[in-house]
């Protein structure tokens, strides 16, 4: 572990004093949605729409946010929570209900889906209070400030993370937020934007991360490699010691960010992680890209970045800087469309667009700020014959527990040129297995009997729909556990087995399996 550091800081932020009155969220007359649409990896795996299509409520306390979650018909009923004012420990208590699992002293988004939290009015500030996302999917957080969240000292919240995600989280879009601390670990703070324990398909866009020892991580240790598919674009990292971000395994796309005053290290790709780093602007910083504090190397693909007064340390044990001459060590395929601003204009476009309460402006690749319209403007008069559709949950909701395939082996009936059986258990949806023909089988196997009750078959982006009819077979006994057509989630009676086989009996063209995930529940 790296040593604790003291971040170089401007004058500490004043803490606002607020009342402790609890205001119950009340419905607004019309439904609304987040402004703009999700970008990056949050658009994959079924997309990220948050609470679009559901009820909109207004909250001025943390308790009211929890009450809005607990007042839904179910834990997946879409809801948009408009937040205004200061949310703190004094007004954030636990609320109980069948559609929520909340706790005092933290905004708890646990075991839920289809939620938008958006700052409105004169602004929303979460003061010394973090947002914790756990076992959840399809979440949008937009236009809020989160500041001075501590893991030690008083008060503490969310393990010291401004926004923390863990334990099977899917599809989160965090946009136009301001995340701030007032020091490093020795002052009681941890990360500003952390992801661990099987968190995937996340985008952080048009946001400010500043005045902290740690920007954020993907993976809590060298063995926590189930995270990935994260996009960071058009963000300002300022006055940060390290972790902008720290990547342990997985894939990240990092573009059009402005980095200023990174004191120790920046993008830290390690433990096999792959990062596509393009058209960023680094200024007055040290060791902005590389593998640091470990001998478990990571990889990067670089292009179009500008280094302005960047210094580099020498290569040595547990220190592998990518500079001073940035060179790619891998290639990363990006499955979604995006528009790049030129690196030279990144400081200016980022200055004009990032953070909460700045008008939610974005860039379309022209280096000129644009104001997006609401994703779904409410109709003045609903059509009499067609009620407004409700937004469904993500195509494949997150399972409970760990993907057991990540630590298993794989084999199959055949493999097409350039594909591998192991590609279905590597946590990377862009790599895949295909049979030599239009049918074939792929298996996950363990060294001893393993309890499985759910399988998710994921197809790479752009190839969805190629898998036709299939059977899921207990290879130990030959018993058919389930059958059907098309990729997706497959549930069946819990079975202990050492090998499970997905048998493709028909397809349109050559089928591709990007991931064969297995779960105990």
Automatic annotation (TrEMBL):
The UniProt entry's GO biological process terms, in alphabetical order, are: polysaccharide catabolic process
Localization recorded for this chain is:
Secreted
**Annotated GO MF terms:** pectate lyase activity
Signal sequence range: 1-33
Main location as per UniProt: secreted
Annotated Pectate lyase domain residues: 78-288
UniProt keywords, alphabetically: Carbohydrate metabolism, Lyase, Polysaccharide degradation, Secreted, Signal
User: Pfam families this protein is in?
Assistant: Pectate_lyase_4
Q: Which portions of the chain have biased composition (kind: Low complexity)?
A: 405-420
- The domain of life for this entry's organism is Bacteria
The UniProt record lists the keyword Signal: yes
> Which parts of the sequence are annotated with region: Disordered?
360-426
Bias class Pro residues marks the residues at 370-400
| InterPro entries, A to Z | Galactose-bd-like_sf, Pec_lyase, Pectin_lyas_fold, Pectin_lyase_fold/virulence, PEL
Which protein family is named in the record? Answer: Belongs to the polysaccharide lyase 1 family.
Q: What is this protein called?
A: Pectate lyase
Its lineage opens with:
Bacteria, Bacillati, Actinomycetota, Actinomycetes, Micromonosporales
């Amino acid at each position: 572990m790296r040593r604790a550091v003291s971040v170089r800081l401007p004058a500490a932020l004043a803490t606002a004093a607020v009342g402790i009155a609890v205001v119950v969220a009340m419905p607004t007359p019309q439904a609304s949605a987040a402004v703009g649409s999700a970008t990056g990896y949050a658009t994959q795996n079924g997309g990220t729409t948050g609470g679009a299509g559901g009820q909109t409520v207004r909250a001025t306390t943390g308790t009211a946010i929890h009450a809005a979650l607990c007042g839904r018909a179910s834990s997946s009923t879409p809801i948009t929570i408009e937040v205004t004012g200061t949310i703190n420990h004094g007004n954030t208590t636990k609320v109980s209900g069948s559609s929520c699992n909340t706790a005092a002293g933290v905004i708890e988004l646990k075991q839920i889906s289809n939620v938008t939290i958006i700052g409105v009015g004169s602004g929303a500030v979460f003061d010394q209070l973090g947002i914790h996302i756990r076992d959840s999917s399809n979440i949008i957080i937009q236009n809020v400030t989160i500041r001075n969240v501590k893991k030690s000292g008083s008060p503490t919240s969310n393990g010291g993370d401004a926004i923390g995600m863990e334990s099977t989280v899917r599809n989160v879009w965090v946009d136009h937020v301001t995340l701030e601390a007032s020091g490093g670990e020795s002052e009681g703070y941890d990360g500003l934007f952390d992801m661990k324990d099987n968190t995937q398909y996340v985008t952080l866009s048009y946001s400010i991360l500043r005045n902290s020892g740690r920007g954020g991580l993907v993976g809590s240790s060298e063995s926590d490699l189930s995270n990935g598919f994260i996009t960071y674009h058009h963000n300002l990292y300022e006055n940060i010691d390290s972790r902008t971000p720290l990547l342990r395994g997985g894939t990240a796309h990092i573009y059009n960010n402005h980095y200023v005053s990174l004191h120790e290290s920046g993008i830290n790709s390690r433990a096999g992680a792959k990062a596509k780093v393009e058209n960023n602007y680094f200024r007055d910083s040290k060791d902005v890209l590389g593998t640091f504090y470990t001998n478990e190397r990571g990889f990067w693909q670089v292009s179009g970045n500008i280094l302005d007064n960047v210094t580099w340390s020498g290569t040595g044990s547990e220190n592998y800087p990518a500079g001073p001459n940035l060179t790619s060590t891998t290639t990363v395929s990006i499955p979604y469309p995006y528009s790049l601003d030129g690196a030279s204009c990144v400081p200016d476009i980022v200055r004009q667009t990032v953070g909460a309460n700045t008008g939610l402006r974005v860039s379309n690749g022209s280096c000129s700020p644009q104001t997006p319209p609401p994703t779904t403007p409410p109709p003045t008069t609903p059509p009499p014959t067609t009620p407004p559709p409700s937004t469904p949950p993500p195509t494949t909701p997150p399972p409970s527990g760990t993907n057991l395939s990540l630590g298993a082996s794989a084999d199959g009936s055949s493999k097409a040129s350039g594909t591998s059986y192991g590609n279905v258990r590597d946590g990377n949806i862009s790599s895949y297995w295909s049979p030599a023909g239009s049918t074939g089988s792929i298996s996950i196997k363990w060294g001893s009997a393993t309890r499985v009750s759910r399988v998710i078959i994921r197809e790479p982006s752009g190839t969805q729909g190629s898998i036709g009819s299939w059977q899921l077979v207990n290879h130990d006994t030959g018993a058919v556990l389930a059958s059907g057509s098309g990729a997706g989630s497959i549930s069946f009676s819990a079975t202990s087995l050492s090998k499970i086989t997905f048998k493709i009996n028909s397809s349109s063209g050559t089928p591709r399996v990007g991931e064969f995930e297995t779960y105990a529940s």
